[in-house]
Amino acid sequence: MGSVGNGWPRGGGEIGELLRHPAFDAVGLGPVESWPASLKHIAEMVLNSRQPKFVAWGSDLAFLYNDAYVSVFPERHPAALGRPFRDVWADIWEQFSPIVASTLEGRPQLFKELLIPMRRDGRTEDTWFTFSYTPLRDDDGTIAGILCATLDVTDQVAAKRGEKLALEELRAKSEALAVVNRAGAAITVEPDVERLTQIVVDAGVTLTGAEFGAFFYNVDDGDGGSYMLYALSGVDRKNFEKFPMPRNTKVFEPTFSGEGIVRSDDILLDPRYGQNEPHAGMPKGHLPVRSYLAVPVKSRDGSVIGGLFFGHGAPGRFSRAAEASLVSLAGQSAVAIDNIRLLRAAKVEIDQRRAMEDQLRKLNEMLEVRVAAEIADRQQAEAALQQSQKMESIGKLTGGVAHDFNNLLQVISGNLQLLGKDVAENSRAKERISNALAAVERGSRLASQLLAFGRRQPLEPKVINIGRLVIGMDDMLRRALGEEIEVETVVSGGLWNTFADPVQIENALLNLAINSRDAMNGVGKLTIEVGNAFLDETYSRTHPEVKAGQYVVLAVTDTGSGMTQEVKEQAFEPFFSTKPEGKGTGLGLSMVYGFVKQSGGHVKIYSEIGEGTTVKLYLARSFRSEDRATAADTVPATGGTETILVAEDDEGVRATVIEMLSDLGYYVLKAKDAQSALTVIESGAHIDLLFTDVVMPGPLRSPELARMARQRLPDIAVLYTSGYTENSIVHGGRLDPGLELLSKPYTREDLARKIRQVLANRPQRRQAEADTPASNSRHSDPGGPGTAGKLKLLLVEDDAFIRMDTAEILQDLGYDVIEADSGEQGVDILGQASIDIIVVDVGLPGISGSAFAAKAREVLPSVGLVFATGDSDLPDADRFSGSVLLTKPYNSTTLDRAVKTAVQQRPRA
């Protein structure tokens, strides 16, 4: 739960913004900062929900709702926010007061489609809601409020009511029609159109004495025609269909148009009847009859349903009485067909309604399932978010702790190593120093595990074959585990390569092996297997953090006591351990988990009580060739004479590393931050290597410092150091390509070896520059051997002890030294002697060192200047061209080099 100052509540849309406003104050609750944690938690859940919800809390039941709830009462928003429940819903309080009281007594409430006369737009209207009331408890378990989740179902209820009325009306019509049909002739009760028309045709044949009858139904036949044969009586259908109803003849047009009856008492019979060929003089396709009668069949709305057609082979067979009977029969059939159509339409509508209701029911069931799934997904996502935030917070915490912790360890380690030289003849002191250094190493491992868990360690991945790496660790594992542990290593054939940090894989395997040894109480069998694996989409669905694909799997199996389900769920948490107190830090598996996740892999534990444990590490397959092993560790741990600029904000670390580098023979310049280091670089001083801490205060970041340094000094080498790299030179958990890093704490040997390695790999100087006299003489003696005495040097230093020691060193180096204890005395000397080099303290009393240097350059424009200071900045470097910075404390080597450099860089007369 975030604090108000940090933006609580997270998200929440418009309502969230209102709650975050400093002026917001809920009745009876006070400012948001003072709300109990239980209320903050439930309020944040409600604000970020997409379902209309509200919380009523406290003695006055302060009303808090989310954006989705605004549509329930838009005219009351935002005045209702934080007001008493009773005031917000005064118009329905009488109806809801018992519900609220029952909920506050601890009884949850659920109402489906409850009618609520609600005041909206200045009038009361009927609304229906489905909602639940849930009692809420405060931090001490007392019921303090109500949570409501609601849904406006007014439209659905109205729709169902309309459907019910429509069905009742249709049923009434059907019953009325049934009564009418039962009261009429038998023909009108026939429920089937086909059967009814057949009865009508058969009856028409009987009534009219026709030899055959037919019903032509008035519908589109799909082939351009408008009439189709529907029923037939008194003649073979196959024979009749040879002479179908003419498509284009106008003989029966009055019948099909509904204008009247068509009859003929005497026409010629086609002698070729049955051969489907018209006789000369007869209309093409005419019926094979001598007399016929055609009566239209009309619906009650006047539209033509079709026509009844009757024929006979003899002329004059249809009487007027038969015609009237046929007309009556056609009318009854039309009524019956209309009724059947209505019933069919009603049935179709009812079936459609039932289908819609069934679809709605299935939709509701599906919706319930989807809601349940969404709730489960939301809970899972919230849990994952909380875990992610927790891991992120711990990661930041461990990173910060590791940074400070490693700086302290570096100071301790460096001074112990320097002290070891001073007590080289004292065996007891050397043993104690060795023990202290061992403790520093343990502390360093602890910090490394913290960084690994927080996924902050700078990985240096390579394309490797894990099988070869594991086989190479066999002897070391056997020694570490003891003789009572049987170790079996199985490497599958055709093993794929993977892209990972080999050192971290070794650490992970060693951690797992030691955990297994402890689980087996020192006796048992450890099996290490390396093989190929494919994690498919099915596995990925049950493990959302895993991407389906090809992996190299490293499995470690023991025959130990196994884990319970609870222990498995907590196994990767930091500082969780089942070992006795003092037997473990609880960071081993956390380190393994952090490393694998940082490498884009997956970790899985399989374990049962009494059956042992298997831990599998999945690392993504690499399709590149295996990288060659580097020979960095074979570089000798020696010193050198190059110039190194140290940029380090921690004073203790800075002093220690300067002394270590000086002890190794290097000429060292120092800076307290990146900006100060840039000033030294821009002074024109010769620098071979920039040794910079990654995390330093100030606006200028270390990577930017390195970039600017290379712009000014193309051949400069850069070595980073840090106990915690953040994201400045490490991205995706991996050190940026082409960069060199020495992690804190480091030993004198580590420092010496890394310095030589980085210097050996730096860009080579241009051959032309290397051949110039100035370049070749950069580190040469200014006057050659035995000639330093020709240079007269003025030393201006107010501290008597520093002045005496420095003068003695300079005299031992062969310089002619004149001493001055103040700037004023130095000015007097300038007018009395010819001076080649001036070594001046910057912080002089009276006339400052920079003011004295300005006067010296006025008198002696080509004099060389060396500024001695405890700071890392040159005073006004642009003003004093060619000047050199000598950082305190300095030794004879650094002092000699500074003077020689000043001689080389002094302005020419």
TrEMBL record:
Annotated stretches, region: Disordered: 762-789
Protein name, as recorded: histidine kinase
Reactions catalysed, as given in the entry: ATP + protein L-histidine = ADP + protein N-phospho-L-histidine
SMART domains the record matches: GAF, HATPase_c, HisKA, REC
Domain Response regulatory: 643-759, 792-903
Secretion signal span: none
Keywords, comma-separated and alphabetical: Kinase, Phosphoprotein, Transferase
InterPro entries hit by this protein: CheY-like_superfamily (IPR011006), GAF (IPR003018), GAF-like_dom_sf (IPR029016), HATPase_C_sf (IPR036890), HATPase_dom (IPR003594), His_kinase_dom (IPR005467), HisK_dim/P_dom (IPR003661), HisK_dim/P_sf (IPR036097)
Top-level taxonomy: Bacteria, Pseudomonadati, Pseudomonadota, Alphaproteobacteria, Hyphomicrobiales
Enzyme Commission identifier(s): 2.7.13.3
Record's keyword annotation contains Kinase: yes
Record-linked Pfam families: GAF_2, HATPase_c, HisKA, PAS_4, Response_reg
Domain Histidine kinase: 400-623
PANTHER family per UniProt: HISTIDINE KINASE, SENSOR HISTIDINE KINASE
4-aspartylphosphate: residues carrying this PTM: 693, 841
Coiled-coil stretches: none
